[in-house]
Amino acid sequence: MENQVLTPHVYWAQRHHELYLRVELSDVQNPAISITENVLHFKAQGHGAKGDNVYEFHLEFLDLVKPEEEEQLNKLRLESQGSPETLTSLKKGYLFMYNLVQFLGFSWIFVNMTVRFFILGKESFYDTFHTVADMMYFCQMLAAVESINAAIGVTKSPVVPSLFQLLGRNFILFIIFGTMEEMQNKAVVFFVFYIWSTVEIFRYPFYMLSCIDMDWKVLTWLRYTVWIPLYPMGCLAEAVSVIQSIPVFNETGRFSFTLPYPVKIKVRFSFFLQIYLILLFLGLYVNFRYLYKQRRRRFGQKKKKIH
Questions:
Q1: Which domain holds residue 89?
Q2: 276 is an active site residue
Q3: What is the pTM of this model?
Q4: Catalytic residue among 200, 238, 290, 292
């Protein structure tokens, strides 16, 4: 009985002047790929729809394949475990899910605070922490993933701006608000949380759409524009929270310490808070400069007309 020729599943895609072929085989061994005139020949051992066998096919094009075009075909990419296409898809899926989770978290915070403000008015300012702190803790701890992604090359974002924002926000959240109950009932918590969530409900969906190669112009414009007023406002709100916390830390003595003998000088935590205020505005400059470059690169500069 003659051996039956097995043909694998072949997927065709075309974009502009490029053709893409995907052969559904895994564990491919000894692939033989060649082009003669207008016919593509493929033969390889691999695991396909009929199990582990030899698969082959011949694909005829409408016109002859020129030598220079033959090189541009990039041969034929095989779908196998660990292939570049698979890794890219996994990375995009991972980034999409991360941005989706962050978008949902910050959206919940934003909507919750907005509804409470319209219902309770200014009274909602003073219990903001107890209402949304758990979700903010979750989102800000998860945000550490962004700095890790930038550090290991999963994303192309620079590490320093991402790290400045992560450390700055978490210092305010966990140290200034989280450790001092006296700070949790202050109105400044509302403004800090509201500005953070407003920035993120535009940033994360933009990155979500980027993962699936979509560009919504309105969202793109908002992502590269809303930070211009919101980042300085956020920095100001954070600075106010630090300034308001200084007398509280001085009174309680929390995180203060005394240097060992023979110095025996008491170092108040407020001293470090004053240093942090300087670093806070330094971080604003770093992030503002980075985001401005991003915006200019994205939208370009309008050329001046020469008369």
A1: 85-284
A2: no
A3: 0.71
A4: 238
